[in-house]
Amino acid sequence: MSVTISFLGGASTVTGSKYLVQSSGHSLLVDCGLFQGYKQLRLRNWQPLPVVPGQVQAVVLTHAHLDHSGYLPLLVREGFHGRVWATPATQDLCGILLPDSGHLQEEDAAFANRHGFSKHTPALPLYTRQDALRCLKQIKPVPVGQAFEPIRGWLARFYSAGHILGAASLLLEVGGRRILFSGDLGRSDDLLMNPPAAPPAADTVLIESTYGDRQHPAGDVASELAPALQRLAVRGGVAVVPVFAVGRAQTLLHTIAQLKERKLIPASLPVFLDSPMAVHTTDLFSRHLGEHRLDARQTHALTRAATRVETPEQSKALAQRHGPMVILAASGMATGGRVLHHLALYAGDHRNMVILTGYQARGWLLASSSCASTARTWRCAPRWCSWPRPRPMPTPTSCWPGCAAAPARRVRSTWCTATWRPRTCCASASSMSCTGAPWCPNTVPPGRPERPPGNAHTAVGAPSGRP
Ligand SMILES: [Zn+2]
User: Which domains can be identified in the chain, with CATH numbers?
Assistant: First the structure.
C-alpha cells in the first residue's frame, strides 16, 4: 500500500507547516499552520490548498504555535468537518492562540479599510474570531503516549517534544510504514520544559529545522539578566522586554522569580506582564503540572512573578508609573501589540533599557540596524495614537530601591545625571558616591559647572563610563 506525503508549507520557509499524508484514498493533515512573516509569505495563506478541505478526514497537531495550528479556522470554514487530534495542553493553548489570531485578522482588515491600504474593497480578514471559536469544538485531546486512530487503520502516538507546553512528535503507522514527524523540538537544557523524549524507531523521519545547523549559544539567562536589572534598579529606569506570549514570557518570569529569591535583584523591583495571552498561558503551567520542569512551588512563584496587565486601560495606566520597573509585553519581535506603545514611551530615555531575549527576524522592527541608537525616532502610527505620548522621564529624587534604610527614614538624594546612581545614599553614603569617582563622566574639576540634566541622550541601556 503506497503512502505519499506532500509538503504544503514549512518547506523553504519555517512557517506554514502542513504535511498532507495520503494512502488508499484517505487524507490526513499533520499540522495546519499559518504562513507568517513577509507579505509574500502571508499571501500564501489566501491561496487554495491542493486538496479540498472537505476531503481531509483528520488533522493531527504537533503543537499550538500558529505556524503549526493557525490555518485551522480557515480549514474548518472551508469545509473540513473531521476531528483535530492534539495533546490536552495543545488544546488549551489553541483555545488562547486561535481566537486571538482571528481577532488580529479582523483588526488588520478594519485598519486597512479605515486607511484604504488594501486593493480589495472591503478588505476581509483571513478568518474571524468566531471562525476560530468554531474550529475549537473539533479538537479531540489525547494524552502523550496513548495510541489513537485518526483514520481507521492508521495508528498514531504522541511523544513529548519539549519546545512548549503540549508539544509532541507524532509517530504515524500507515500502509506498513512508520513515519515520525518531529514537530518543533525543544532544547535538552530548557529552563521550563522537559527534554524531548527519545524518538521511537521509524522508517521515515521528518525533522523540523528552524535553526538549521546553528549551535545554540551556551550560557545562563540569569547571569546575563541579573546585572542588567541591577543597573536598572539603581538608576530607576524602565526595562521594556518584547516577549513571545507562549514560552519566552514564562522563561523570563521564572528567571526573574529566581533572581529575586536569590536576592540578586531587589525583591521590590516591580514587574508587569502586559499581555492577556501571556497571562493566560502562564496559568496553564499550573493546570499542566508534570508536563514541565517546575514543581508546584516554582509554578506558584511563576504565576506570581509579575503583576498581570490585561485590559488596555491597565496597560495605559503603566505610563503613569515611575521606574524602576520591568514591562514584559508582546509581541516578541515588536511587530505589533502593546510593546510598541512602551517602546515609543520609554526607549528614548537613556535611563531605560530595551532587553531583547529572543531571535529577531530580518525585516522586523527591532532587527533594523538603527533601532538601538535611534530609538527616540520611533513614532506612533495612527492606530496607536490614543495611547500616552512619549514624555521626558522625571528625574528621580527618592533613594534607590536597594537602600537599606527603612522607607520612613529614607531621605531624598540627588542623582548623577551620567550614571543615574544616587550621589549619596542615606544608608551608605560613601559606597554610593558617584561624582568624584574616576569612571564617572560627571566628575569635573572644582569650579566648573556640571553638565545639566537631560542632555545626555546618546544611548539606550547602560551609559558608558560605568565601572
Ligand atoms: Zn513552535
Answer: 4-206 (3.60.15.10), 221-384 (3.40.50.10890)
